Amino acid sequence: MTLGSIPLATPDLKIADGGRKNWTLVCAPVMAETVDQMLVLMGKAKQLGADLVEIRIDFLKNFSPKNDLNILIKQAPLPTLITYRPKWEGGQYDGDESTRQEALRIAMELGTDYLDVELKVAHEFYSSIQGKKPEKVKIIVSSHNYENTPSVEEVGNLIARIQATGADIVKVATTSVDITDNARMFQLLVHSQVPMIGLVMGERGLMSRILAAKYGGFLTFGSIEEGVISAPGQPTLVDLLDLYNFKQIGADTKVHGVIGKPIGHSKSPHLYNAAFKSLGFNGIYLPLLVDSVANFINAYSSPDFVGYSYTIPHKEDGLKCCDEIDPIAKEIGAISCMIRRPTDGKLMGYNVDYLGAIAAIEEALRASNGATPASASPLAGKLFVVMGAGGAGKALAYGGYEKGARVVVANRTYEKAKILADKVGGQAITLAELKDFHPEEGMILANTTSVGMKPRIDDTPLPKESLKNYSLVFDAIYTPKWTRLLQEAQECGATIVFGTEMFINQAFVQVERFTGLPAPKQIIRDVLVKNT
């Protein structure tokens, strides 16, 4: 399907204006109990930049079909899609089926632009209208699977069944069990010979809603208000249009993202998408909720999937999926950045965590000691305690060792701490032992565990009474910015370094590696301040 082959129901949809790079419409679901409330929401949808509204009449109380539909369709400030979703297809309507279909026929006669009819009753509905459909009205025949995403062959057969009904537009919505499910939907979208809405529901399906623009989907949905969604995993209109710059996504847009689990807390999409936009770089950066790195890399081997940041807990698994590894990343045993080399498609692994974290710690030490930036590293000779021996822990331990610090690795399991400590000529202890560990004053502490991260913000990896022996405390967590660990460290008189500093320093490096252009540092800083 080519972008130009999609039949549009209304000539007033300005699809190609303002340098827009795709034909995928942005549809705002409207759900309310009264007609007046729906009209207000439609006005908001228009203000926010939606192309059309899906009027979910199954949410209306005291619904009077002829009167209510006439008002909603005639007074809508945008083209309309009428949906009257029954409970058996995931909606609210639980009444007589013939009454429901009569309301759909009324909407069609009143001139709605689009009408959603479920596959289960499509033949029955088409028989009832006897070919008397206004040319303007386009019928979307839909199928919703709330359990999983079947194979390409199974969904392909489903699409053929939908097409056989006489549908103007095919809609298939499945549910994500794994992020790789989206790849099957993209494959079907690209090869579809008819206009198709292909979406994967749930948090792992978010990329299907955004990349619909890249793969030629007929429309995608964006909610008017956060949390008020018509299907799981739906982004807001604001995120879709502003954060992900949806209208600028084209078939040649390069895909980047942050690979982690959990990933909903990540601020990375805000930073990188703003940087890409500022640089005029044709790229998108997505939050990628990945269960298996190997499966993800295998599923998205297209040359357009070009770069990833890695976060907890996938930094070590990411390294195993690289074709080539930077020597420093190999030494650390974890990557934080992966780039597909354009010349041969090989995956290159790097670790830039230690650059960001160590630079932030050194800067804070120099500021507190009054030393000039040109002097030797203020970490040299210091006792540097690293909590955690995962990917970030390895990066910090290696970075401290490189700067001449005496490294102590504290981990929940002693064996893992010992392996890392031996690599950097340091000492290993357990986290339990760390509470009473104070061989000297003025130590440096770096937390790389996830203890204290949202949503468990009241947790801390080390009791307050143990913090009095440290002159500086760094926490790699940046959501929240003020972790309990940092608050209590400050109360004990220590200099504190926020995880945001490590995050921002490594963001500068990664933006430059992804784009080949100088990072817009002030824009990145401003966006981070706005979103923390």
Structure description:
The chain is an alpha/beta fold. Helices cover 37% and strands 19% of the residues. Strands 7-6-5-4-3-2-1-8 form an 8-stranded parallel beta sheet. The two termini are 42 Å apart.
Summarize the structure.
The protein is 37% helix and 19% strand.
As residue ranges, the low-confidence spans are 1-17
Largest sheet: 8 strands, parallel
Side-by-side strand order of the widest sheet:
7-6-5-4-3-2-1-8
**How much β-strand is present in the residues?**
15-25%
Counting H and I runs of at least 4 residues, what is the number of helices? 20
> Count of DSSP E strands?
20
* Rg calculated over all Cα atoms: 27 Å
* Morphology call: elongated
* Distance between the amino and carboxyl termini: 42 Å
The percent range for helix content is 25-40%
Q: Structural class given helices, strands, pairing? A: alpha/beta
Round the mean pLDDT to the nearest integer and report it: 93
Write the layout of secondary structure elements.
Elements: E1 25-30, H1 35-48, E2 52-56, H2 65-75, E3 80-83, H3 97-109, E4 114-118, H4 119-129, E5 138-144, H5 152-164, E6 169-175, H6 181-191, E7 196-201, H7 206-210, H8 212-215, E8 219-221, H9 237-243, E9 254-260, H10 268-279, E10 283-289, H11 293-299, E11 305-310, H12 315-320, E12 324-325, H13 327-332, E13 337-340, E14 347-350, H14 353-369, E15 383-387, H15 391-402, E16 406-411, H16 414-423, E17 427-430, H17 431-434, E18 443-447, E19 470-475, H18 484-491, E20 495-497, H19 499-515, H20 521-530
Parallel strand pairs: 1-2, 1-8, 2-3, 3-4, 4-5, 5-6, 6-7, 9-10, 9-11, 12-14, 15-16, 15-18, 16-17, 18-19, 19-20
Antiparallel strand pairs: 11-13, 13-14
